[in-house]
Every structure is written in C-alpha cells, then in structure tokens.
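Write out structure tokens for Chloride anion exchanger.
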Amino acid sequence: MVEPVGNHYVVARPVYSENLFNEEHDKLHRYHKSFLDHLKLYFRCSPQRAKKFALGLFPVFSWLPAYRFREWILSDIVSGVSTGLVAVLQGLAFALLVNVPPGYGLYAAFFPVLVYFIFGTSRHISAGPFPVLSLMVGGVVIRLVPDDSSGNGTATNSSAINDERVMVAASVTFLSGVFQLLLGTLQFGFIVIYLSQSLISGFTTAAAVHVLVSQLKFMLQLPVPGFIKPFGIIYTLESIFSQITETNIADLVTSLIVLLIVFVVKEMNDRYKAKLPAPIPIELLVTVLAALISYFLNFEEKFNVAVVGKLEEGFKAPVAPDVGILQKCIGDSISIAIVGFAVAFSVAKVYSIKHDYQIDGNQELIAFGLGNIVGGSFKGFASSTALSRSGVQESTGGKTQIAGIISAVIVLIVILAIGFLLEPLQKSVLASLALGNLKGMLMQFKEIGVLWRTDKYDCVIWVVTFLAAIFLGLDIGLATAVAFQLLTVVIRSQVPSCTILANVGRNDIYRNKKDYTDIYEPEGVKIFRCSAPIFFANIEFFREKLISAVGFNPLRVLRKRNKALRKMRKMLKKGELQVTPVRLICVASPTLESDEELDNNSIEELDKPTIMTDLPIQINWGAELPPGITVPQVDIHSIILDFSSVSFLDFSAMRILQKTLKEFVRINIDIYIAGAHEGFVEKLERCEFFDEEIKPSMFFLTIHDAVLHILLKKDIASSPKLKPAEEKSSSSDYIIIPSNGLRSRAGTV
C-alpha cells in the first residue's frame, strides 16, 4: 500500500523474500518456447501472415496506395530533379575512386534506386554510390588488376585493363549484394549494433582521408600506382611527392578553383538554409561551366588535361560475375556489405526519427542486397547512400521514394541522351567535387574532444579505428577496429564496477558509501554491488573484490578454525584444557605443534564446515581462546549481494560463486542476494545451485527487504519477547518508510 503525503510517500508491506513474494502473489510458471517452437511459429502460415509477409517484402505496396498525390507530387518532383543532378555528378566522381571509367558510375547511380523504390523502407535516403564504399571497391580493383607497370600505355592496353577492372568491380559488388541479401533473409539486421557510432565515425573519417589522398593524382594528373597493402597511404604520398614537379598546372589550378567555389557555396547553403528555398546546386553549376570552358578553350589539346572522354550511350547487357574473381574477394565483399548497410541504416534511422516512421533493418539489408546484385549485373559498383545526396533529397522537400524514381529518370536521360555533353569535363573537376562532399566526414575530427570528455573508451575506439583504417587499409582496418571494440567490451565486463553500499537518508535508498556523508550501515552487515554480468572471465575478479570488501578471506578463516578445533581436541585428550560453562581454560602448558603437523590430513578436510558436536561446549570464535590458538577475527554476520545489475550468470561462474558463498556460510556468515532479475532463481534451480547450505530463501526482492529481515532476525535473537514471532513467517514483518527514518516492525533503526 502506498500513501502519498505531500512530496513524500509511505509504503506498508511485508518484508518479502523471493519465495514468499511468489507464494503470496501466485507466480505463474510460464512455458518458455524452445527453438523448435519458434521455428514452428515463424513458418506457420495464415492469410494474415501471408499478407504481412508480402507487404514486408514489398514495402512499396504499403505506402504507395496511401500516397497524397496533390500534396506531395510537386515536392517530390523538385526533390527528385535536384537529387538526380547530384547523383549524376557523384556517380561520375566516385567512379574515379573505383578506378573504372566515369560512365560506369551512372549505372551505380541508376539501378540501386529502382530496386530500393520497391524494397526499401526509408522514404528519404537516396540509394547510390558512397565514397567510402567506392574506395573499398577501388582497393579490390587495384589489387586484382594493378596499373600497367611496363610503361606500354597504348589505347589497347588501357581498354583491356579498364574492362578487367569493370568486371572486378561488378563481381565484388554482386557478391556483397549476395551477402547482404543472405543476412537480411536470415534476419541478421541486428549486426549493425556491433558497429558503434564511434567506430563508424572513426572509420568514415579515415575513409575520407583515403579519398582525399586517392584524388590527389587526378588533381595533379600524376601516374601514381595503387598501393593496396598495409601503410599503402604512406607509399602513395611518397609516390606523389616524388613526382610533384611533373604536376599538370592546368589541372591543379582548375581543382583549387573548383574546391574553393564548392566549399564557399556549401558553407553559404548551410548558414542560410533557413532563408534559401532550396540549396544552391553548386555542383551542377560548376560542372556545366567547367565543361563549357574545357570544350571551347580546348583544354585537352592545349594543356594535356585528362578528361572524362567518351561516355557510351545506353546500357550494357547484364553479365554473370567472374567466379575466379569471387573467390579472391570474399573477405572484401563481407566488409563492403557490412559497411554499406551500417552507413545506410544510420542515415535512414536519422530521417525515420525526424519524420516519425519505422524502418526495418532486415528489409534494408534485402533492399541494398538486391540493389547491389542488379547493379553488379549491369556493371555498376557498390551502392549505399551518400550523406550529402540524401540531405539534398530530404531538404528539398522529398516526401517518399517517388523522388528517388524521378532522380533515376534524370540519370537515365544522361545515360541515354545527353551524356556526350560531359565528355570534355576534366577529371580534376570530378575529383574536386568528390572532395567537396567530404567536409562533413572530415569535420568528425571534432568528436575526439567531445568523446574524451564524455567517454574515454569511445574516444580510444575512435582513435584506434581511425589509425587502423589509415595505416592498415579500410578492409583490415575495419576488422581490427571491430576486434578492438569487442575487446573493450570484454575488458569493461571483465573488470566490473564493484562498490560497498550504505543506506542514505534513513529510508530505502542505498548508494555508494563513498559518495555521501549522511549514511547508515547496519552493524555487522556488508552490502556489496556488482554492476555487470558475472561470467567465466570476471568471476575471479568478483571474488577478489568481495573478499577485499569484507576484509578477510573466508577460506583462510575456515581453515584456521578447523585447525584450531583439531588442536583443541588434542589438548582435551591430553587434559591440557578444562571445560567450564562459559569457555575452555588451559590448565597446563600446551604442547607446541607446527602447522605442518596440523596439516597431516588432506586440505579438503580443512575446507569442510566446522563440526563441534563432539565438544562439550560450543566455541565462541569472538571470545578469548586458549593460549597458543588464534584465528582471524570476523566482525560481520551478514552479507547482502546486490544483483540488480547482473543480467546473466554463466555455468562456470555459477560453480565458483556457489563455492565462495559456501565458504562464507561455513564461518557462520549469512548470505542474502537482492534484486535478482526474473528467472534468476529458476535458472539456479535448473543448474542444481541450491543444497543444504545454499538455499533459495537467501533471495530477497530488494536490498531494503534483506536489511529489514536481518535487523528483525537480530532483534528476535536478542529479545526473548520476540521469540514467538520467529516461528511466524516473515510475512508478518512490515516495511514502514516514513519521511524521517528507517524502521522495522521490531523498532526504529
């Protein structure tokens, strides 16, 4: 019963152990489904489930019939046109990262959008090329098809190398799509939880640095080979600076001008986005202007600049992936699949929260998997979503993936009709546009300071991920970062926070005793909290912390007591001890015996409970003992273990915990466990944790229940008037928590 009194409350209820609470409130014994039961439920078929499955697999049929045509169509058209123009330019630019001819970037910007329209669950992200994924695919391309080192750079050789590279990019994209589709089908959408925000931030920042370095060769027009190996970025920079005197000045000047214009206008878009009806399409304007200048001033012949060149009209016939290539890029495909999904899901989650709708991680995996399979079949490369492109689609008013379809139409027009207009465009301009989209990722360096102040573990994860991805490469770096992140989780759970609690404010609140001055600690009671799961890796740490908290080793005390009892029995036999009603008195000089003589029997006997039934009196270990007999003093009688933060306890830890608790029980210390989660006791029963020494009655609902039980038990033991109450169950013991003190039924504490 709870009675509010102003801003206080008074609770009157019995002191509950777990068993008593379950008996009084008729706890139900629920049937827990087995794996087979879940399988049967999953594959059970009904019209409702079939409809739900169909709508889940094809989300377009759930939102398209409810499309508000008059309200949304204009916004989607404006958004689609803007996004399509950006997609064209990013497709051409990111193709340079993949080391394939720019035209193939248009395929990567077209097919994934069509597939995502049907299978995707986000209304606002723009599917297509992403610089980090493009760079990862480009790494595989360079590794399997390196640059021509013979110096025979004929058109025939270049064409053959390009064809091989396109095939590698398409094959690795196809395989990454297969992995994504497989993970989505098997409901592995939760895999993204193993990539923390700190890891993703550090990884994408490192990828942005890789993109920056990889584009320098296009901005300077230098023949820099690809170095796809650990510390490859160092070798790339070394190659660039060794040839720096051969820089094409026209490309360098063009790149710097484009970069300056793009950065300035993007900054204006960010600063005045509330006043602008739509962001200024600076990429489009710069591209059109640069293409016109390059064409009319004939930059290719006058300054020997590298240009986009001929863009083939129409589509290539779909091709099957090369099995030989697939065998060489399995690991890369897995990395690309996971990173692509993680980035896309993170962006989709942001917009789903902002616009209040649900997205399905498993369905997103299926959508991007199918998009990559289709895109790879048509010689595109891996897709996800670019943050800048999705930002354009959402900020220009896009309501649904109708905007995505319209953006695909813009890309289609370029592929089929007007692609030739981009042929005189310098590759250095595309490189500058790619770098212009990296500002957001490069600005993530600011997170280091914030993370250091808020969570040093996350800061270390960020730095390690960044350095690993920079120096070891994106694929090995990602694997290293994930392994390191999991290691930090193990370390944090292996060294959990363990504290001694005390009552604060004379009520039912218990906090770390080091944090408060107004505390109350019941005499002879230690309250110990472990704030982590207990398992095989940290159970020894838990045991050491518990022993340190109570101030003695129970096993050592037990052995000392058993040795003392053995010595007393020998002294009684020799007549060296005299029995009195109170204690044993030494009447003769005791025979000195070494510990070795007392240890003749096996150590297991010393670890058994102390037995005094054969002695004429019960030994009071706190009183004076006969000369020559000493045992460690124990000044507590009860230990309460707060398990409210212990989410699980594995079998290995369970056995060591049982052994530790028995050691305390055998030296007459009562053990209580409070706050254990639902099903904890049942699991212990299934694992045969309980016996004559360790009983289920040690479990209590809260720390306060256990404390009041101990205090009442102490009152009963010290007051004969309360003896009859001991025969009653603890259901007659009530918690009364007024605003001014802590009391048990037996009196005020």
